[in-house]
């Protein structure tokens, strides 16, 4: 099961980072390719992304753990989605740890995917794409929560 993890220290306290990470409405500001979020309520939300061909793609998620301000985990609801033939499971976790007496935050984003079908033959492609996505997410999050220099 490919698991990809990327970390970065952000110049913002954990509470400020948590306020952005824990609110799905903010994902369009920091998560790669998310154009907007819909239906964010009761621990569920939908990301509307734009594909490489310029078409909208919807992905539904369910929050499975929220431990403020330390860890947030959500899983993609795959049944009946365009992702179902490729993935049996996709779980994203964002972990926050205070640094410098709480003046900064070590953010670790992890994506765990259980591959299905032909995708099981090329796990390295999924890990590479996930690493790029998670690195872009941390860059976007830094731009939102870190003060301009």
Spans where pLDDT lies below 50 across 5 or more residues: none
The CATH H-level superfamily is START domain
Distance between the termini: 40 Å
Strand numbers in spatial order across the main sheet: 1-7-6-5-4-3-2
How much of the sequence lies in strands comes to 35-45%
Largest sheet: 7 strands, antiparallel
Number of separate domains: 1
Percent range for helical residues? 10-25%
Text of the CATH class: Alpha Beta
Q: What shape does the CA trace take? A: globular
**Estimated radius of gyration:** 15 Å
How many H/I helices?
3
What is the average per-residue confidence, as pLDDT, rounded to a whole number?
Answer: 93
**CATH architecture type:** 2-Layer Sandwich
What structural category characterises the helix and strand content?
Answer: alpha+beta
Order of helices and strands: EHHEEEEEEH
General description of the model:
The chain has 149 residues and is an alpha+beta fold. The chain has a single domain (3-32, 64-145), classed as Alpha-D-Glucose-1,6-Bisphosphate, Chain A, domain 4. The protein contains 3 helices and 7 strands, in the order E-H-H-E-E-E-E-E-E-H. Strands 1-7-6-5-4-3-2 form a 7-stranded antiparallel beta sheet. The protein starts with a strand and ends with a helix. 19% of the residues are buried.
Topology at a glance:
Layout (H helix, E strand, L loop, with lengths): L2 E8 L3 H8 L5 H4 L3 E8 L2 E7 L5 E12 L3 E7 L9 E13 L4 E12 L7 H23 L4
